[in-house]
Amino acid sequence: MIHIEARKLSPEDCVKLAKITKHARQGTPVESNKTIEEISKNIEDLSISDGYRIFIALDDEENIVGWIYYYVGFPLMSFIGGFLPLVDETRESEEIAISLIEALKKDIVNNRRSRLEIELVLPTDEYRSYSEKFVEWYKNCGFKFAAEEMHMKTDLSSIELPELDLPHDYALKKFSEVSYERLKDSGFRTLKESKEGLFLSMHHAEQEVTLEYFFDKSKPYIDDASLILEKRGEIIGFVIARMMDDEPEIGPVGIVPEARGEGLGTYLFVRVLKNLKHSGANSACLDTTVTNFPAQGLYRRYGFKEVYFKQFYFWSP
Questions:
Q1: Spatial CB neighbours of 6, under 8 Å, sequence gap ≥ 6
Q2: In whole angstroms, how far apart are CA 88 and each of 85, 92, 143, 276?
Q3: Residue 227: CB partners within 8 Å, gap ≥ 6?
Q4: From start to end of the chain, where are the E strands?
Q5: What digits encode the pLDDT tens for the residues 271-289?
Q6: Into which CATH architecture does domain 3-142 fall?
Q7: How big is the chain by its Cα radius of gyration, in Å?
Q8: Which of these, 134, 150, 98, lies nearest to 307 by C-alpha position?
Q9: Which fold would CATH assign to domain 155-315?
Q10: Amino acid 63: pLDDT
């Protein structure tokens, strides 16, 4: 009989979890060269962080036989990093895995959260095949498919960017000059009428929280590449860029529904790429839903190519 606990981990617990992790990932695409000691230290760091909740599975003799964790990303929502749970390979993995996932669901309810989401990063076909058992576990626990995204990247040093004029009556401002209250309505309408599947899979309150995250000025952003397009004082479009792992990441990008088809998105996007290039950036990246073909067409026009894919599944009480 398996039972699940969320408890403060001892150094011995961390070593046991590290051994399970090392063995479970051996021979798989996510195999790591880290030692047991290094993995144990990573787990210990997670266990002392206020943003993470670790759950362990124990058998009748109190042996640890599996584990999982989630982290609190935003108010209302929590996230699983992917390719979890990890289970002792000598045990019945599906039973233990489902018990761990179900324990997370109960904890989400107890903490009055509305969404539990898992992200699976798929850089190769081998990763996609490996992900299938995890997807099956989560689907068996009531998780639904939210979206598949592609991570795209361009070499700024090798692309030619056209000279585009800003149409009459339009003005360009920096993100730093525009309040969230002014951005909120246009941002919500833009994303609500977009093809971005992850945002559309959320209910209204979660979308509002996500929008606040997108337009959060307390998170560092690239000032010259985070731009707002206005027409007679009304916000028409936006692009936000931030540094992620020493590379500019662009997003969100949007034009309000009633102004689409006029080339404004192209103007705004090219202006951001030019500013990044002028600042010395050699590359830029972004994420987009795989079925958002209009956006992909724009991105590919300026050298963006897919690097890897990501799948998202979610559960709501």
A1: 53, 54, 55, 56, 103, 107
A2: 10, 8, 23, 47
A3: 172, 173, 174, 175, 238, 239, 268, 271, 272, 275
A4: 3-5, 52-58, 64-74, 77-80, 86-87, 115-122, 144-155, 170-174, 227-231, 234-244, 247-255, 283-289, 305-315
A5: 999 999 999 999 999 999 9
A6: 3-Layer(aba) Sandwich (3.40)
A7: 22
A8: 150
A9: Aminopeptidase (3.40.630)
A10: 94
> Token pair for residue 269?
């996007």
- Which sequence spans correspond to the domains of the chain? 3-142, 155-315
Find all residues with CB under 8 Å of 297, minimum gap 6, and list them. Answer: none
Alpha carbons 296 and 317: distance in angstroms, whole number: 34
The whole-angstrom separation of Cα 248 and Cα 153 is: 10
pLDDT at 68 over 90: yes
Q: 85 preceded by cis ω (within 30°)?
A: yes
**Is 213 within 8 Å of 228 (Cβ atoms)?**
no
The single-letter code of the amino acid at 171 is A
CB atoms within 10 A of CB 60: 8
> What gap in Å lies between CA 233 and CA 203, rounded to an integer?
30
DSSP letter at 113 equals: -
How many Cα atoms within 13 Å fall on the side-chain side of residue 122? 20
Task: Render pLDDT for 201-260 as a digit per residue (tens, 0 to 9).
Answer: 999 999 999 999 999 999 999 999 999 999 999 999 999 999 999 999 999 999 999 999
Name the 3-class secondary structure at 155. strand
